[in-house]
Amino acid sequence: VTEEDRAAELQKTKTTPAETGVNNLTGDVVDLETLRKSVEDFFSFCYGEALGKSTMVPVPYEKIQRDQSAVIVQGLPKGLAFKNPANYDVSTLKWILENKSGISFIIKRLF
């Protein structure tokens, strides 16, 4: 092994972590968007189910925020407000997906 080979190998190991870091950052952004989409789809399914439909129905997040007594979301942790998945952090999104069997919607009043 020559000095040039060692220098080339050292250069590879120096650049790899930086490249990996960039890829991980991009992966994290993609992962966050995937999580948000999964929770949004899950909420749409729950909302449709609460309306008596077997299909996903878009959730009217703004209307629910304005009239919080119209729709009750059961199964969220105490202190966690129901809101658009775009406003949740990664750990909350993951918790929702891991515990979705215990989450349900109850429609008190239609919009």
Automatic annotation (TrEMBL):
GO molecular function, one term: DNA-binding transcription factor activity
PROSITE patterns on file: GTF2I
Key words of the record: DNA-binding, Nucleus, Repeat, Transcription, Transcription regulation
GO cellular component, one term: nucleus
Principal location listed in the UniProt entry: nucleus
Superkingdom of origin organism: Eukaryota
Cell location: Nucleus
Protein name (record): General transcription factor II-I
